[in-house]
Design goal:
- The chain has a single domain, classed as HAD superfamily/HAD-like (Rossmann fold, 3-Layer(aba) Sandwich).
- It has nine helices and seven strands, in the order βαααααβαββαβαβαβ.
- The chain has helices at residues 17-27, 35-47, 53-60, 69-84, 90-101, 114-123, 153-166, 183-188, 199-208, and strands at 3-6, 105-113, 128-137, 140-146, 174-177, 191-195, 212-213.
- It has a seven-stranded mixed sheet.
- The chain starts with a strand and ends with a strand.
Length: 216
C-alpha cells in the first residue's frame, strides 16, 4: 500500500494547533495569560527554523503537570470541535478523501504533542499519526516528553522507525508540508508537495521542482 504523509499545522489546518491550544487554555483559565507573549516569540524562532523544540514543549506542557489524562482528553475534545475543525482547509479534506479512495495509507506527522495530534487525526478520519510523545504517571501528565521529538530531522527518524515496525515501504510515497522545518521529511519521500510554503521552503521547492499548492 502506498503511503502519503501530511504535516498538520499550517498544512491541513489554517493555523498552529499548539498555539491555538495554549490560547484555549488561557481562555479557560487553565494557563497564565502571560504565557502567550513568550510562546509567540518561540513561534517566531520556529518559523525561522531555529526553535529548541525541547524548550518549547517544556514551557507549553507546564500547565498540564499533574492533570489527569482523562480531564485533558475532555478539554481537547472541546478544543478540536470548536477551534480546529473550522480551520481545516477544504482542499485538505478533499485531498485526504482522494487518497483514501485510491487506497493509499495516510499518515499525519506533527511537531505537536500527541494529546492534540491523536484526536485531530481521528476527527479527520486518519488512523495513523506520529507526534511528540508525552510522559505520564499514575494517570496524570508529568509535563515531560520522551523519545525522539517529531521535529525537523526527528520526523525522519520517527518515520523510519514507524515504517520498519509497520513493514511500510516509503517507495513512491508522497509528502505535504508548509514549513522549512520539514525539509528533511520532504526530501525523504518519493514526491514532495509544498502547501502555502514559507519563503525558505518556497525557494527550496522551486529549486527542486516540487509542486506548490496554494490553499485558502
Amino acid at each position: 500500500m502506498a503511503l502519503v504523509i501530511f504535516d498538520l499545522d499550517d498544512t491541513l489546518i489554517n493555523g498552529d494547533s499548539a498555539s491555538l491550544w495554549l490560547a484555549f487554555m488561557v481562555e479557560q483559565g487553565l494557563a497564565d495569560a502571560d504565557m502567550l507573549e513568550q510562546e509567540a516569540a518561540m513561534m517566531q524562532a520556529y518559523r525561522a527554523g531555529s526553535l529548541s523544540m525541547a524548550e518549547y514543549m517544556d514551557f507549553t506542557l507546564h500547565p498540564l503537570r499533574s492533570i489527569e489524562l482523562t480531564q485533558v482528553a475532555d478539554w481537547v475534545e472541546q478544543f478540536v470541535e470548536h477551534r480546529i475543525l473550522p480551520l481545516v482547509y477544504a482542499e485538505a479534506r478533499a485531498l485526504l478523501a482522494d487518497y483514501q479512495q485510491q487506497g493509499w495509507r495516510r499518515l499525519i506527522i506533527s511537531a505537536t504533542g500527541e494529546h492534540l495530534v491523536g484526536p485531530i487525526a481521528q476527527a479527520l478520519g486518519v488512523e495513523d499519526y506520529l507526534a511528540i510523545q508525552l510522559t505520564h504517571a499514575d494517570g496524570r501528565y508529568t509535563g515531560g516528553t520522551q523519545g525522539v521529538l517529531t521535529y525537523q530531522h526527528g520526523k525522519v527518524v520517527r518515520l523510519h522507525q514507524w515504517a520498519q515496525q509497520q513493514q511500510q515501504s516509503l517507495l513512491g510515497s508522497h509528502g505535504y508540508s508548509d514549513s522549512i522545518n520539514d525539509l528533511p521529511l520532504l526530501a525523504t519521500v518519493g514526491q514532495a508537495h509544498v502547501v502555502n510554503p514559507d519563503a525558505q521552503l518556497a525557494a527550496q521547492a522551486k529549486a527542486r521542482q516540487w509542486p506548490q499548492l496554494n490553499w485558502a
